[in-house]
Amino acid sequence: MPTTHVIADLVRQITTTTGTGTLSMGSIPAGCQGVVAGVGDGKKARFKLAASDGSWQVFEGTVTDGSPDTVSRDTTYANSLGTTANISLPAGTHTLDLAFDAKSGNEVTPRLLTSGNGVTLAGNTLTIDCMGSCSVFAILSLTANITSVVLQNVPERCSLYLEVTQSGGPYTFAQAAWPSGTVLDGTYNLYTDSTKSRFWWTTTNSGTASVLECNAPSVDSLPRTAEVVTVTGNTSIDSTYNGKIIDCNSGSSITLTLADALTAGFQCYALRRGAGAVAFARQTSGTLNGAASNISISAQWRAAFVFAYGTGTFAVDAG
């Protein structure tokens, strides 16, 4: 379960426990409150344990109300030995304090990450260093296709906002690039024009499982003002043509080949403005109106509407 950042004043208690196990709590110094009062029975918190021999340990533990009260040492974040093991307490009097440690500080500090400062695009791999923060805002100028996303130093709970713009290209950023265990909530989309693509990635278990959302446009309508792309020869239709009007203007025949990788929701229009014939063809294994054969626009000044109802499967309404 996520750790609550318990904030309470002067939580300090003495223990004479020896060894590496659970702490049995003793007296409460004057002016302080004990762990049960300050944290609560059955709750987790982060503590600093200062031993009588000068050794120390920062850890997450669970408080239990009892006779005596106890604090388990569940997860060690740092200690005087430079390890993540429980220190062995010698005979003597040791002090336990409620701690707001470096890990807690990193988790509650929002991070703004940019290229060279937590965001690295090397080859086709995007690396984002969350720096232990639960709230991360990252900005990326896309200069290459992304095939893999590596997230570093992800805390138990993390919300990552990633804002992407195209720089040249257009470049691709596939859903499959996100870490294993990422589940998409909604429709995946990457804008290939000047529109900012926004992604929200959240986890509550350090990324073992996560949810991804993005600012995908509605797939039930074209933009109010569609972009017109003029072609004069055979053209491969990929995701960059989504929502666009393809103006076919040639005296010679034109074949528009629909890519197998186009996914459900893709749509475009095509106008036969020139005298040359215009036909739609599948790339390799797709289907057009349930078949493998090409579909043509019947005459000059007629148009066609193309809609992908599955990956590589298209409905073509040609006039």
Structure overview:
- The structure is a single chain.
- This protein has helices at residues 35-38, 102-108, and strands at residues 12-15, 23-24, 44-50, 56-64, 70-71, 75-79, 94-98, 111-115, 118-122, 125-129, 135-142, 148-152, 158-166, 182-184, 197-203, 210-214, 228-231, 235-237, 245-248, 254-258, 267-272, 278-282, 287-288, 295-297, 303-310, 313-318.
- The strands form four sheets. A nine-stranded mixed sheet has the order 12-10-9-8-11-13-15-16-14, with no helix packed on it. Strands 1, 2, 3, 4, 5, 6 and 7 form a seven-stranded antiparallel sheet that branches. Strands 17-19-21-25-26-23 form a six-stranded mixed sheet, with no helix packed on it.
- The protein folds into three domains: 12-104; 109-214; 228-318, Jelly Rolls (Sandwich).
- The model is unreliable at 219-223 (pLDDT under 50).
- The protein has two helices and 26 strands.
- The protein has 319 residues and is mainly beta.
- The longest helix is centred in the first third of the chain and has 7 residues, at 102-108.
Shape, please?
rod-shaped
Total number of beta strands: 26
Mean residue pLDDT? 91
State the helicity in percent bands: under 10%
Oligomer: single chain
What are the low-pLDDT stretches, counting only 5+ consecutive residues below 50?
219-223
H/E order of the elements? EEHEEEEEHEEEEEEEEEEEEEEEEEEE
User: What is the helix tally?
Assistant: 2
Structural class: mainly beta
What is the terminal-to-terminal distance?
Answer: 59 Å
What value does the Rg take, in angstroms?
A: 30 Å
- Number of separate structural domains: 3
Numbering strands along the chain, what is their spatial order in the largest sheet? 12-10-9-8-11-13-15-16-14
Strand content: 35-45%
Q: Note the main sheet.
A: 9 strands, mixed
